[in-house]
């Protein structure tokens, strides 16, 4: 797993598995080279139960990267009116890396994004 490091405080790690996040508390993005690792979930609720297959080739989708809540702090969203808030954002992509364009002449490929809301 790769991590992008930016300065932030540990308060934005609430609910995330401390054993994994604590080693690199500044990470704002987790890239998964091996999708069997799976994303880090802050909550036991509001997790996707079924990840839809790729709309271009029909292959299963797998987790590619995860946006951590620390990014909110780095962007300073606490100072914004109507600031966004989430526990985690997970992006799932085609496991066959079909690219979409080769399959149906498309210039883009729609991926699946799951946003786990912040705890109330």
How do you describe this structure in short?
By secondary structure, this protein is an alpha+beta fold.
SSE order and pairing:
Blueprint: E1 2-5, H1 18-21, E2 27-31, E3 61-67, H2 70-75, E4 88-94, H3 101-104, E5 112-116
Which series of helices and strands comes N to C? EHEEHEHE
Count the DSSP helices.
3
Mean pLDDT: 76
Largest sheet properties: 5 strands, antiparallel
Helix-and-strand structural type = alpha+beta
What does the overall shape look like? globular
**Helical percentage:** 10-25%
Largest beta sheet: what is the strand line-up? 1-2-3-4-5
Binned strand content: 15-25%
In angstroms, what is the radius of gyration?
A: 16 Å
Overall number of strands: 5
Low-pLDDT runs of 5+ residues are: 1-14
Describe the structure.
There is one protein chain. The N terminus is likely disordered. The protein has three helices and five strands. Strands 1-2-3-4-5 form a five-stranded antiparallel beta sheet, with no helix packed on it. It has 120 residues and is of the alpha+beta class.
Key phrases:
120 residues, single chain
